[in-house]
Specification:
This protein is of the alpha+beta class. The chain is 30% helix and 45% strand. The protein contains four helices and 13 strands. The strands form three sheets. Strands 3, 4, 5, 6, 7 and 10 form a six-stranded antiparallel sheet that branches. A four-stranded antiparallel sheet has the order 1-2-13-12. The chain has a three-stranded antiparallel sheet with strand order 8-9-11. Strand 6 and strand 7 form a beta hairpin. The longest helix has 19 residues. The radius of gyration is 20 Å and the shape is elongated. The two termini are 16 Å apart.
């Protein structure tokens, strides 16, 4: 009897969410999609850029912003950040890239990014030891100041998102969006 009630509730939720453009119905459940544009907007709001770190007495490192990259082949999300390094009268520009797997806090319904893993440091003329130092500092800045970026919180007041909090199966990264797979 209880299983039957759960199926009826799920069917009602499916019917309600079928009208939403961010929700896709399939044989194995529901997928709620959050587009890359929406994720980038959230990242811009919460990430706290620009970040500047002094390298006393040698110089400074500056990271202006983060550009979101969806990496479906790894089922992860990447961040690419322009980097400026200045030391003893010289300066270099480049990029530093990180990847993270999206996480989910079932209690709050929040999808988040955490545990930033360095992918690469690029810069024209940037010496290897300076690139290594910059990568270490930016990694530490992300771990200490950013720690976790909440990119989306499911709203229990919206029927499709309220049920998602209870029935999330997995998170899939696509080329243009992140899909949250729901099902029984």
């Amino acid at each position: 009897m209880r299983a039957h009630a759960v199926r009826i509730l799920a069917a009602c939720c499916l019917a309600t969410t079928a009208c939403s453009s961010a929700v896709q119905l399939s044989a194995d459940g529901i997928r709620v999609r959050v587009t890359a544009v929406e994720l980038q907007r959230k990242l811009d709001q919460v990430a706290g850029f620009p970040v500047r770190q002094r390298l006393a007495p040698l110089g400074s490192i500056q990271v202006e912003s983060a550009r979101l990259m969806l990496l479906p082949q790894e089922n992860s999300i990447g961040l690419s950040m322009p980097l400026k390094v200045a030391t003893l009268g010289r300066s270099w520009s480049g990029t530093v890239a990180f990847s993270v797997a999206p996480g989910y806090d079932r209690q709050t319904g929040t999808i988040y990014l955490h545990q930033f893993a360095l992918r690469e440091v690029q810069g024209t003329g940037l010496p290897g030891e300076v690139a290594h130092l910059a990568a270490g500092i930016v990694t530490e800045i992300l771990r200490q100041s950013v720690k976790r970026i909440d990119v989306y919180t499911l709203d229990p007041a919206r029927s499709n998102e309220g049920i998602a909090r209870l029935l999330l199966k997995d998170i899939e990264v696509h080329q243009d969006a992140v899909a949250f797979h729901l099902g029984l």
